[in-house]
Amino acid sequence: MTTNFEEIVSRHRAIFQSGKTRSAEWREKQLAALRAMVTERADVFCDALWKDLRRNKVDATVADLKTVADEADYTRRRVRHWMKPKSERTPLVLWPGRTTVSFEPLGVGLIIGAWNYPIQLVLSPLIAALSGGNAAVLKPSEVSPASAAALAELVPQYLDPDAVSVVTGGVAETTALLEQKWDHIFFTGGTSIGRIVMTAAAKNLTPVVLELGGKSPAIVHDSADLKVAARRIAHGRWLNAGQTCTAPDYVLVSKSVAHEFLVHLKAAVLDFYGADPQKSPDFGRIVSPRHFDRLKNLLGEGTIHHGGQHDRDDLFIAPTILTDVPPTAAVLQEEIFGPILPVLEIDGIDQAIAHVNARPHPLGLYVFANDQAVAQRILAETASGDAAINDCAVHPIIRELPFGGVGNSGMGKYHGEWGFRAYTNARGVLSRGTRFDAALRYPPYSRGTRLPNWIMGIR
Ligand code: NAD
Prior knowledge:
Elements: H1 2-18, H2 24-40, H3 42-53, H4 57-83, E1 86-88, E2 97-105, E3 108-112, H5 120-131, E4 135-139, H6 145-158, E5 164-166, H7 171-178, E6 184-188, H8 191-203, E7 208-211, E8 217-220, H9 226-238, E9 250-254, H10 255-273, H11 289-298, E10 303-306, E11 310-311, E12 316-317, E13 320-323, E14 340-346, H12 349-357, E15 364-368, H13 372-380, E16 386-389, E17 410-411, H14 416-422, E18 424-432, H15 453-456
Parallel strand pairs: 3-4, 3-6, 4-5, 6-7, 8-9, 8-15, 9-14, 13-14, 15-16
Antiparallel strand pairs: 1-2, 2-18, 7-17, 10-13, 11-12
Bound molecules: nicotinamide-adenine-dinucleotide (NAD).
């Protein structure tokens, strides 16, 4: 198996070194082909997402396929501009000379995806890799096997097989892939596996982007529009049955408005998924029995304010709101990554800020407040990969925003030009003319002819 992977990597490296992947034309052609794949073969991907996660067609189209198609198109239209070397100032001492930054492709990248958005989470990094002029090997998650099989079938039909491959399989295959020498590794998944990936990358000093998870808080202040806050939080939490990395993981709500907020939150669940969410065509399923068992154990903590029904045969857990959860409960320690939402009451924003800062940096932080001063103070006094005011979970669709974590929730950013930058080396280039070569620059300095500091560019 390992020999095989060596062969794949060296084949792609040879193509990369031939220069094939560098041209703007090649990049644009691949991005157009990727877009064609997800639009022309949308049905294949939708079927796979239904099998893996019982994802309804609207969510599959919007959250997976259209997002990827739009990103490929957005990138294709801008990549030539991003590729252009940027001119910078040249200090007087280096005249005549020209200073530029060029964006060099890195080589052959490994992209390891997670199962919750199994198409998007390998194709979106691939868009970044292609825009940077790289070759790439995709390793979709084994936990969503139908999506992995769809990618393995369709990617070679649409994309340049000299430069892009798909490897399916589980931990053994991922481990063997990580033993290869890569020029870049892009990993999406849990923090503990992120550590394994970074350790493997360290052997060859390979640059990494780690898109990890964490407990993203939603803070609801007294000044919030409670109905809108409840509906947006409900949508962010229960989309894909809570298996969304940017979903609000728990709510910190001001005591004075907690009751009213809970009334709106429950109403939103009933409005979105009905009294029997198991029958709702819009509510997803837990990806595997292992994850079902983990989540079911979390239901025993605190008071079930709403929901709590579950059915292992159907991998169904109802949208569940928990209250009165003890601070030591597991549901407040580990990332939930399922359809359970603990709602904790707080006395004020000082307590909310202290709560967030006592924990590892989350991927997202969401403030619901119409008092802008409060929202800005919370953002200024906390850290998170990204943040939103009066919304949650949906900001990754904005191509111009750098997407990614900080600290325990990851490192490196992507989407749009941020992805292009992640997959290129910003190479500073000084290009000198040779007509003048002032002797003043060179030793022996005892000649006393050293140039003044201002000419040397020294302040
Ligand atoms: P997962 O189990 O699918 O694992 C991700 C990848 O890691 C898979 O391709 C798998 O083969 C590989 N892997 C698993 N165990 C491994 C090991 N021991 N050694 C080497 N490789 C291994 O996904 P997951 O980790 O359960 O994903 C869920 C997590 O991902 C959550 O924490 C979620 O927040 C996070 N996530 C983050 C983002 C983001 O963009 N930041 C997006 C989606 C999910």
